[in-house]
Predict the structure.
Amino acid sequence: MRISATILITVFLFFFGVLEGQQFLNLDFERKSAEGANRAWGWNKHPWGPTTFVMDSLVVMNGNFSIRSTCGKGEKDCVKAGYAFGIEAYEIKEKELFFSAWFRSDKPGIRAGVSIEYEYTDEKTGKYGKKTISGTLQDEALDWTRITVETVLPATATNVQLIVHRKGKGTAWFDQCSLEIDGREKRSVLVADEFTNKQIKWLQQQVSPFASPLPVANFDTTAASKLDFLKKAFEGSTIVALGESTHGTSEFFSLKHKILQYAVEELGFRVFAIEDHLVSCQKVNEYVKGSGISRKEAMAGMFSVWMKQEVYDLVEWIRTYNETHPNDMISFIGFDMQNAVLPIDHLKKFLLARDPEFYDEHQELLAELKQQGQQAFTLTDSLKADLLQKAERFSEAVKFRSDRWARDFHDADDLRWSKYASRYAILIKQFFTEAYHGGFALKRDQAMFDNLTWYLEYIYPRQKAIIWAHDVHISRADHSNERHNLHLSLSMGSFLSKKYGDKYRSFGIFTHRGTFSAYPSYSNLSRIVQDELCTSPKGSLSEALHQVASKTGNRHLFLPLSREVDWLNRPLPIRFANHIADDYGFYMRIRVPYQFDGVFFIDQTTGSTVVK
């Protein structure tokens, strides 16, 4: 019997659950992630530990893959370990959930179970909490045995996790997980309220199309006129931040290059600031202003996510512009602080040349901070606290010493160096503050704000700046409820918004579908892969703009955002993909107009081009 192509496609989509506009549930482990068989799509260890979870094609109950979990160490190391799948709460709240999995082991003594975990808000007290509902536990299963759990989620449930877990020494397998909602098995779930036809029509009336995200070789009047909508969007601003929902999308990078051209040629912006280390970018600044070093040498110290052809092209354009405008140059700066060695080495060079006495007093301390800074995030909390106190005391000593430098130095180059030396000491303190508090405290965003404003107030005063960073960092976070803001209202952009008001403008960059270049995982940074982005789900602004793009035939759109439109101000799913391969990525719920003054939208995107 011959099967039509249409039927085959339908079966394929049903099998993989890739239903347009919904969250796909890879509960049978049949789809691989960007890490291949090392991790099933959408699944992650929960929590991290010595127990492994990998896809297995040899021992299966049904289909092509199961999950094999192994702990071969001593019993005390084989504590409870889980494998979790995050699921959207929208469609499953206040409904009966029945989650099951099949389990078997290679020997008696392994205990396995399933759980449903979620966060919630207590409706009486308003406090946030976390709850785990555990189901049946199976102590011995040398053949496939079903384990189950059931519950009803509260109306305020968020961050739902479906978890299979095991405890004990040996090998276990899980297969054929299943989720039933009110008695019906689900392979995908809806994630938010869909936009109505009336709302799509309103969006269609508000957007401005732009021909392409690609920069132009000769930015003449004709090229500029196609971006004239930016004059109104940028009007009155002195700092314009351009975000990105991924750190590896070619069209995002090229669009920023194009907007930079417009901002320089038409609006008088002369500072370009990127999410990279302050010290690393000093060499790039020297290069774009005509130094004899090569572009490769100048960019060698930058973050690997920027080692892309699109960024190289932008740097080269700035240098070319500066060659033809020697009295009106563009400056290239960084504002990040995720490295202690760089500022320590540069500060040492300054002190040896200009204040060897002060260096001798602090030589041992600097050597200790440099050595420990290379492993600071892996140290004990007590040692981290000790290093932070030393970095703080050293920063205060440099601050006090800088008053002497201001009196003694008369040469302009010496005075400029002294300003940077003081900032290097602060960078060292910022690094150890981040190491002590951890990334979730978001001390990094505060530090990036401090570094950026230092540049704009003391090094390049009265100059207008374009910022390049991830969406989460540039977010204004202006909503009164921190849960509806990116980075819990502690983004770099939130500090900029408070300080500069409407002189600061923030613009996100979204896409509907495509690929992006990324590392396979945080534990595998040895290679770059082209990872497929999850198609934006219904109820997200990205999907709504995709509808507008399909109706108008314009695949590149700019949408100014209004806080006066209630339906646009409801919490909406927004994509977050960093420099690491991402499976789903739409768990965040934010009020978009309180984060961005507008969004650029590119319907389909491709991965940025890696420069070897």
User: Anything to note?
Assistant: The two ends are 51 Å apart (CA to CA). Residues 381-408 form the longest helix (28 residues). The chain has three domains: 25-189, 197-336+444-605, 353-437.
